[in-house]
């Protein structure tokens, strides 16, 4: 997998902890990697990069950095199952 990871702000880390707390309080279990302090914010670029192409994929990503962006909305997506739910 190739992904881009932002430099998380204190606000983003606090927001993720609040969302995780709300989901936990609603009885929704999660994997340990989503626990506050363990979660890694990221944007997946590719789920399947063949090993012979990995170096080239990483080089191309690095050529595009840094990327300045502001997140204005988010969603939970599972394209393999056709699921896309915006987070209010």
How are the SSEs placed, and which strands pair?
Blueprint: E1 2-4, H1 10-25, E2 43-46, H2 54-63, E3 74-78, E4 83-87
Antiparallel strand pairs: 1-2, 3-4
Brief synopsis:
This protein is 30% helix and 19% strand. It is α+β, with helices and mostly antiparallel strands and 88 residues long.
Task: Write structural notes for this entry.
This protein is of the alpha+beta class and 88 residues long. Helices cover 30% and strands 19% of the residues. The protein contains two helices and four strands, in the order βαβαββ. The protein has a two-stranded antiparallel sheet with strand order 1-2. The chain has a two-stranded antiparallel ribbon with strand order 3-4. The two termini are 28 Å apart. The mean pLDDT is 89.
Task: Count every helix, treating DSSP H or I runs of 4 or more residues as helices.
Answer: 2
The helicity comes to 25-40%
Largest sheet geometry = 2 strands, antiparallel
Span from first to last CA?
A: 28 Å
What share of the residues does DSSP label as strand, in percent? 15-25%
Order of helices and strands: EHEHEE
Mean pLDDT: 89
Count the E strands.
4
What is the approximate shape? globular
The protein's oligomeric status is: single chain
> Which residue ranges are poorly predicted, with pLDDT under 50 across at least 5 consecutive positions?
none
What radius of gyration results from the CA coordinates?
15 Å
Overall structural class, as computed from helix and strand content, comes to alpha+beta
Order of strands in the sheet with the most strands? 1-2
